[in-house]
Task: inverse folding
C-alpha cells in the first residue's frame, strides 16, 4: 500500500503532471513512448512504472525481448532502429543528468532522427516519466498497486 495517493491529497498539483503525461502520450509514437518510459523507470528503479509501462508496451505490440533488454545494457542488443537508439540514448542522459547534461552527440543524433519538434515531444515524455518515477518511488508505489 502506498504511503499516500498524491492525486487525492494534492489534486491541483497532480493535474499538471497528468496534463504533461497526456500531451507526451498523444504526441509520440506509442511503442517508442513506452520504451522510453520503461528505460527511464529502469534507471530510476521505479517498479510501479516498470510494471505499468511493460504491460502497456506489450499491449501495443512490443516484444518481451526488447522490453527485457531495457533493464541492462540495451546498446549490447541489436534490437533497435537508429531512431530508437537515439531516443534511448537521450533518455539515459536526460534521466541521469550528470555534470555535463546531455552531450552534443546525443542531442544531435536525437534531432537528426526526430527533428526539433519530435525531439521536443520526446523531451516531454522523458520529463514526465522522471516526474512520475519520483512520485511513485517517494510515495511507495509498487507493482502490486497497479
Result:
Amino acid at each position: 500500500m502506498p504511503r499516500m495517493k498524491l492525486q487525492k491529497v494534492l489534486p491541483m498539483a497532480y493535474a499538471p503532471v497528468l496534463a504533461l503525461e497526456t500531451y507526451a502520450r498523444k504526441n509520440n509514437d506509442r511503442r517508442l513512448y513506452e520504451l522510453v518510459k520503461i528505460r527511464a523507470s529502469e534507471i530510476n528503479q521505479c517498479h510501479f512504472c516498470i510494471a505499468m509501462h511493460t504491460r502497456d508496451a506489450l499491449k501495443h505490440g512490443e516484444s518481451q525481448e526488447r522490453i527485457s533488454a531495457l533493464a541492462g545494457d540495451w546498446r549490447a542488443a541489436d534490437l533497435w532502429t537508429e531512431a530508437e537508439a537515439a531516443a534511448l540514448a537521450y533518455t539515459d542522459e536526460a534521466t541521469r543528468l550528470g555534470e555535463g547534461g546531455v552531450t552534443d552527440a546525443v542531442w544531435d543524433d536525437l534531432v537528426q532522427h526526430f527533428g526539433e519538434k519530435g525531439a521536443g515531444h520526446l523531451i516531454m515524455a522523458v520529463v514526465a516519466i522522471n516526474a512520475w518515477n519520483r512520485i511513485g518511488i517517494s510515495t511507495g508505489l509498487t507493482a502490486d498497486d497497479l
Notes: The CA atoms of residues 46 and 136 lie 7 Å apart. DSSP finds seven helices and no strands in the chain. The radius of gyration is 15 Å. The chain has one domain: 18-144.
